[in-house]
User: Which sequence fits this backbone?
């Protein structure tokens, strides 16, 4: 078992099998936004008000321009004088309205962003903490890249809709509703003619929209799947290169991208048809309205000023209508993203709350049967038994796939057994709160992956409230102090992906220091299969000996030296214990599997 074994990226089942589909629909989406925006009502409500006002102010333009333009028509004498004064007045009105609109637009954007960005930070936080708290079964069923994509892509799409699409939509809706009312007051006949052409078009918009929503969701899913290939190959870049499998990985990526492209282009075709339809229908409506209006002016049914106003309003209204489809399709895209995020947020998380307990480290597993949820008919453990008194060293040995790591997975309660009992200090392990149970365990994995950060932070991971002196003490006991001190920046040296690269033995000693700091009742040690050089091996072994003192240790053992010193050796095969005893006892048995395994090791 390694660090990675906690969240394997391969070997998965389809997410549909475990996902609790979030109910979708406007009501649920509104409830989601309400929940996250409510704490920011103080900025969000003013932002909405300002938005409606700026929407309304848009009308100042067609209103005053139409009056201004009408003043260009021939006039004489006092009428001309009056017209001159009015020209200045209307021009000033327009400038004032535009000025006000500019100021308000600034505040609107600021307020909206404040509310939306803050709400979205909360959504990101909730999503991330939900992902971390998901039970292992769910985490395994979903690929890591897919979960990451929810956080990266889906939340971003929601953000975009909240800070830009929704405000634009509200603004255009205000323009539409207000514009229609004003136009109706100017001439029922002319505007009625125009409005009669709108509702059928709107119906088609809705029909088109729901189809686009489906296709865009499929494209997003395929993009997330392709991201998994990128994540997996980068995580295992050494293997990819070592096997010269670059072309193979590129091929896999190409496969996913091709299907993404197909869906995406299918979506683009639909969107294109959608936009083409909008252009054709609405442009024709405008032309028809102008034609109809001019004829009305010619027959004296309305005056020129009203006609100019209606024409300008019509231009504004059609601009709003024209931008609606794009906004609707963006919103639908956001709807898909929102659905996926909500689906994740509804997933049941592990209950980590509970009082902390300090265990003595007595372990017992009785008649345990287990199969992984992804392969329910393959028994990985079959009538497995283990019994360790507090402070004992138990070595698990056996061929690969025998079920050694699975035993550890069950002790940690990453999974629940199908049958049988697991007792800790004589009580069923399910009686303990998960987090306090796990705090009583510390894991030194085979392949230690350090977190990006300093060495000090990496050791502190064992116990976040440890003091600097305690960290140094733990490092000393883990035989790590000397090499850390020699590094140019000592404990502050950055490690992990972007930091200094440490050797396998050094990383192991850091993991040991981490475990020493955690001071657990039970130590789980997955010995490295790759051998270290003699000096490094000695340092690691010494550190481990100190760590194992006075605590129960479960060791997935590969080295004979460790096995020899174990109080009990459980030889596993096919998910059960086939031999049990000390080294001497088992080695003495002529045909024991242990003897064969031990001999094999000695020969190397
Ligand atoms: N998450 C999983 N889902 C389904 N099957 C799994 C999972 N993890 C392990 N298995 C299967 O369970 C069996 C036991 O695996 P386990 O990792 O416990 O063996 P192991 O003895 O630790 O092997 P190794 O020494 O190679 O690490 C194997 O057949 C493996 O394929």
Assistant:
């Amino acid at each position: 078992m390694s660090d990675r074994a906690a969240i394997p990226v391969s070997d998965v089942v389809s997410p549909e099998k475990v996902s609790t589909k979030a109910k979708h629909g406007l009501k649920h989406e509104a409830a989601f936004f309400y929940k996250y925006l409510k704490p920011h009502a103080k900025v969000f409500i003013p932002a909405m008000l300002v938005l409606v006002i700026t929407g309304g102010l848009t009308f100042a333009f067609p209103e005053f321009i139409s009056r201004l333009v009408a003043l260009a028509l021939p006039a004489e004498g006092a009428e001309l004088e009056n017209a001159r004064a009015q020209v200045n007045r209307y021009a000033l009105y327009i400038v004032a309205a535009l000025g006000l609109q500019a100021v308000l637009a600034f505040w609107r954007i600021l307020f909206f962003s404040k509310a939306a960005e803050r709400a979205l930070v909360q959504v990101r936080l909730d999503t991330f903490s939900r992902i971390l708290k998901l039970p292992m079964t769910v985490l395994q069923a979903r690929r890591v890249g897919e979960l990451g994509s929810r956080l990266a892509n889906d939340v971003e799409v929601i953000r975009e809709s909240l800070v830009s699409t929704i405000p634009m939509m509200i603004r255009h809706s205000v323009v539409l509703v207000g514009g229609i009312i004003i136009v109706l007051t100017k001439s029922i006949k002319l505007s009625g003619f125009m409005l009669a052409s709108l509702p059928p078009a709107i119906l088609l918009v809705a029909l088109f929209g729901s189809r686009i929503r489906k296709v865009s969701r499929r494209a997003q899913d395929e993009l997330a799947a392709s991201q998994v290939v990128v994540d997996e190959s980068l995580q295992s870049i050494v293997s990819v290169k070592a096997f010269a499998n670059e072309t193979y990985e590129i091929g896999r990526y190409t496969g996913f991208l091709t299907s993404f492209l197909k869906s995406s282009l299918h979506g683009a075709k639909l969107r294109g048809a959608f936009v083409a339809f909008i252009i054709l229908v609405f442009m024709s409506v405008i032309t028809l309205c102008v034609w109809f209006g001019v004829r009305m002016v010619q027959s004296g049914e309305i005056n020129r000023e009203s006609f100019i106003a209606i024409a300008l309003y019509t231009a504004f209204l059609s601009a709003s209508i024209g931008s609606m489809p794009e906004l609707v399709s963006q919103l639908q895209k956001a709807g898909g993203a929102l659905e996926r995020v909500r689906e994740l947020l509804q997933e049941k998380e592990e209950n980590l709350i509970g009082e902390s307990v300090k265990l003595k480290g007595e372990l017992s597993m009785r008649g345990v049967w287990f199969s992984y949820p992804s392969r329910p008919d393959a028994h990985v453990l079959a009538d497995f038994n283990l019994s360790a008194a507090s402070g004992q060293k138990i070595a698990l040995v056996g061929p690969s796939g025998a079920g050694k790591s699975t035993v550890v997975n069950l002790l940690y309660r990453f999974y629940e057994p199908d049958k049988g009992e697991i007792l800790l200090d004589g009580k069923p392990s399910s009686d303990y709160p998960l987090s306090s149970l796990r705090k009583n365990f510390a894991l030194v994995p085979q392949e230690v992956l350090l977190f990006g950060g300093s060495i000090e932070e990496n050791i502190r991971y064992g116990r976040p409230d440890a003091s600097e002196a305690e960290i140094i003490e733990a490092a000393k006991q883990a035989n790590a102090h000397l090499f850390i001190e020699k590094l140019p920046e000592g404990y502050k040296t950055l490690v992990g992906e972007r930091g200094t690269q440490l050797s396998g033995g050094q990383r192991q000693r850091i993991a040991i220091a981490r475990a020493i700091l955690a001071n657990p009742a039970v130590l789980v040690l997955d010995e490295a299969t790759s051998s270290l050089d003699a000096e490094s091996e000695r340092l690691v072994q010494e550190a481990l000996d100190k760590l194992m003192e006075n605590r129960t240790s479960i060791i997935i053992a590969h080295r004979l030296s460790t096995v020899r010193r174990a109080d009990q050796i459980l030889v596993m095969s096919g998910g059960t214990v086939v031999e049990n005893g000390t080294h001497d006892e088992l080695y003495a048995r002529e045909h024991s599997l242990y003897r064969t395994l031990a001999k094999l090791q000695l020969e190397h």
The longest strand covers residues 363-370. Residues 233 and 241 are 10 Å apart (CA to CA).
